[in-house]
Known about the structure:
By secondary structure, the protein is mainly β. The chain has helices at about 10-20, 300-305; strands at about 55, 65, 75, 75-80, 80-85, 85-90, 95-110, 110-125, 130-140, 140-145, 150-165, 175-185, 195-200, 215, 230, 240-250, 255-260, 265, 270, 275-280, 290-300, 310-320, 325-330, 345-355, 360, 370-375, 385-390, 400-405, 410-415.
Amino acid sequence: xxxxxxxxxxxxxxxxxxxxxxxxxxxxxxxxxxxxxxxxxxxxxxxxxxxxxxxxxxxxxxxxxxxxxxxxxxxxxxxxxxxxxxxxxxxxxxxxxxxxxxxxxxxxxxxxxxxxxxxxxxxxxxxxxxxxxxxxxxxxxxxxxxxxxxxxxxxxxxxxxxxxxxxxxxxxxxxxxxxxxxxxxxxxxxxxxxxxxxxxxxxxxxxxxxxxxxxxxxxxxxxxxxxxxxxxxxxxxxxxxxxxxxxxxxxxxxxxxxxxxxxxxxxxxxxxxxxxxxxxxxxxxxxxxxxxxxxxxxxxxxxxxxxxxxxxxxxxxxxxxxxxxxxxxxxxxxxxxxxxxxxxxxxxxxxxxxxxxxxxxxxxxxxxxxxxxxxxxxxxxxxxxxxxxxxxxxxxxxxxxxxxxxxxxxxxxxxxxxxxx
Length: 421
C-alpha cells in the first residue's frame, strides 16, 4: 500500500504547535510557514489526436483511379484543366459505395478552348479499393444569359456535387443529389448567376435527368426562378447573397442540407463571413417553403483559425466509425491578392453534437472536438482541395491534390490518406 506524506510545508505546520508549547529554551525563533506550491495543471491534450493527422505527400497518399473515366487529354498529354475534384460519398442498401465528383476539362469554343466542369458518378463494391465509372451526372451546357444590351453567351457549369442515399426517408425516392450551378459568361464572371440546387430520384442514375429545385438567395438573378427562399427562413442568413458548396445528410426522415453562405464585399468574397449553415427539409416537399427549417450556423472563421485559416469552406456532414457525426471542412485563407477563392490549409473533421441546433461538440477547454486533420504543405499557397469520408471506406479520408501548371489551369487528383477519424 502506498502512503502519501505531507509535503515540506505541511510538515512544518505539524511542527509549529509543538515548538510554541515550550519544552525548548524559550528563545527559539518563530517558525516560518512556507505555502505549498500550486500544483502544475496537466498539459492540455493536443487539438488533433496525433494518430489522426497527416501531411500528405505523393509517396504516402496514393492516387485514386476511376476505371473508365480517364483525365481530360490534349495532344497526347494531360490537359491543363483536368482530373477529379470535390468528392462526395454515400453507401447504398447493398453496401456499395458511390462517389460523385467534379470532372474539370477543356472544351472547344470557337477557335479555342474554354474551361468546363461536369459532375461524374462512380461506384465501388469493395470498400473503395477500386472504382468503376458509372455515368456523367450533369454535363456542362452551352447557354445564354439575357441582360440589358443583348444576350450573353457562356456555359452552365456544375461543380461540388453531393450525393446521398437516405434509408430513413419514407417513400420510394431515397436518392438525393445537390450541386453548385452557375452560368459563366464570356465576360469572365459568374456574378448573380450562382445558385444551389437539389435533385431527387430513384435509382441514382435518375439524378442525371431529375428536375432541379433551386435554392433562393438574396442576390440571385431574377432569371433563375427560386423554388424556396432559404434566406427568408432566419434573420441570421437574410444577407446571404448566394449559396454554394452543398452537402447532404439524412436523419429521422429529414433531409439535412449544409450550405455555404457567400457574402461578398467590394473587395470580393469575404472569407471570414462566408460561413457554413444547416437547413433541413421534408424530402417529399423539397420545393415547398413550408417544408424547410433553419437549424443554425455550423462553422465559420473561428474554426478556420484553429488551423491557420480565416474561414472554412467545402463542408459536408459525414458519419464516423463510432456512429457519431462529423462536419468535414477545409480551412480557407487569403493568399495575398490571389483570385483563387479556395486557398486551403487542409481539411478537418469536427465532431457534431447536434444537428437539430447545428452545434459542434466541445472539449472541456471550450474548443471544438477535432477528430482528424489532413494537410498538404507542399501544395501551398494553393493548398489541397476538398475532402470526403465514409466509415466503410478502407482507404480512409480522401483529399484532393491540386496543382496549378505553368501557363495556368488546374490539375486535380483524389488521394487516399489512410486516416480514419
